[in-house]
Amino acid sequence: MIPALTIENLSKVYGDGFVALKGISLEVQQGDFFAMLGPNGAGKSTTIGIICSLVAKTAGKVSVFEVDIDKDFAAAKKYIGIVPQEFNFNQFEKALDIVINQAGYYGLPRELARERAEKYLKALGLWEKRDVPTRMLSGGMKRRLMIARALVHEPKLLILDEPTAGVDIEMRRSMWDFLKKINAQGTTIILTTHYLEEAEALCRHIAIINKGEIVEHSSIKDLLRRLQREVFILDCLEELPESVTISDFVARRVDSHTLEVEVEKGQYINQVFDELDRQGIHISSMRNRANRLEEMFVNLVEGAA
Amino acid sequence: MTLAEQYVALSTIVRKEIKRYLRIWTQTLLPSAITMSLYFVIFGTLIGSRIGEMGGFTYMQFVVPGLIMMAIVTNSYSNVVSSFFGSKFNNSVEELLVSPTPNYIILLGYVIGGISRGMLVAVVVTIVSLFFTHLHIHSYFVVVVIVLMTSTLFALAGFINAVFANNFDDISIIPTFVLTPLIYLGGVFYSMELLPDFWAGVSRLNPLVYVVNAFRYGVLGVSDVSLPLAFGMIGLFTVLAFAYSMHLLNSGTRLRQ
């Protein structure tokens, strides 16, 4: 199976001399749900901009379904649907017109464009708002409109640049469900996000970009497997003594009923429960101190991993 | 893209452009009708009656072709400059840039939008002018060709202005400080025969002189400049403006980072 996206030695130097990308290479397989992570200014949006032609590359090669963008960008663009970070539609136009016009720019006849617009506006819960000027829509609705617009020509590769930024939790979950559904139907998805929980919940593979370089490119499973240490927070039924000791583990009393325990790779958390049980302390609930991926991300970006 | 797909993309852009200026007709169509009516009343009826004949016609008949052309020039220019700059300003131009629509189709779509507004306003202004005078068209062929060429040229000029504009002030500077003086000095209100030889020579450097006179020839059958020269100059400027606009689009100047 040919890859959905291949990037080789891609670099970008802006006019003011800022080096946004330092020769990155990566590959995204067909059908994948791929996360691109990185701090602000890492080069994620520049990479996406180059793939969809809004940014001119300085050097390197980009192929979409093996179509080199330098040789036939128009053909490559037909494969791509893009949902940018910022709202980029005329807010005086109606949602239906925006989606139909976008279909027209891809050469879809008017009748088919109408059918597709109806299909995706309905799927994203915007059909009732189709004749409303888009400036009247909420932020979440505007984001969903951009997804409908990106899907109207039924691209094989959907790229979303922080699609859930500023969206409430309920809306974010429904967007996740929608994206999972279209991914299951065969659309390859590349997602940039600051919500690491989002990447962990949705994506199978990941690239972490920092200062224009890829510092990690693997499957999320592999990445999490490499975690050396996890910190758990235990809520205790009984009041804890001033000092709590659990042999072979680092434990710290947070407050009278909360305990923090570090579990190294190879250790079993059952040992913690057994030890606490012996001390007459019972656990009512337990959670991770931080998102596991977030911890790994911070380590990679700070160069500590 | 296949030719059929390109046609769909082109008609989409044109439809969007026409819909845009019809939606805001009080800002796009009405002002020209009002302004031109005032010109007809003041210059044609009130002052014109004291001026007498010019170029063998009543002053009102003499100024009408120039005023119609003035409406075509300003409207085809301002339609493209405001629409394309607006799409740059709100980033909706990205809808086109990420699509497979070829650059020449994008340019053609905006230009046709500008031409259509220029021609629609020309029809409105012509109808208004018929309340003040009667018009006899000398050559329909010249009228149609010169209107199409002129509105294409100024729609392209509006596009170039929009590409370089950074804010809304930038899209009014050229119409205010360049286009309007050139129109006023382009022989809309007077015959170049009235000018001393030196200033008549200087006026021939003004492209609007050729536009106004060629159109006046089409309507009245009189012109201060030779018709082939007028067509040649307008054609040359149009080709240059089209080539430069394509260069701006292909290089992504002020459009891609």
How is this structure best summarized?
By secondary structure, chain A is α/β, with parallel strands linked by helices.
Structure description:
The complex is a heterodimer of chains A (305) and B (257). Helices cover 33% and strands 28% of the residues of chain A. Chain A has 305 residues and is of the alpha/beta class. In chain A, the strands form 3 sheets. In chain A, strands 6-7-8-3-9-10 form a 6-stranded mixed beta sheet, sandwiched between helices. A 4-stranded antiparallel beta sheet of chain A has the order 2-1-4-5, with helices on one face. In chain A, helix 3 crosses helix 4 (110-123). Chain A is globular. Chain B has one domain. The model of chain B has no long low-confidence stretch (mean pLDDT 90). The A-B interface holds A 14, 49, 52-56, 73-75, 77-78, 80, 82, 84, 86-92, 97-98, 101-102, 104-110, 149 and B 1-2, 4-6, 8-9, 11-13, 16, 19, 23, 86-87, 90-92, 94-102, 252, 256-257.
The CA-CA distance between the termini of chain B, in Å, is: 24 Å
- Low-pLDDT residue intervals, each spanning 5 or more residues of chain A: none
Q: What is the strand content of chain A?
A: 25-35%
Number of strands of chain A: 14
The tally of domains of chain A stands at 2
Largest interchain contact: A-B, 34 and 30 residues
> From the coordinates shown, what is the CATH architecture of the largest domain in chain A?
3-Layer(aba) Sandwich
Domains counted in the coordinates of chain B: how many? 1
Distance between the termini of chain A: 33 Å
Spatial extent as radius of gyration of chain A: 23 Å
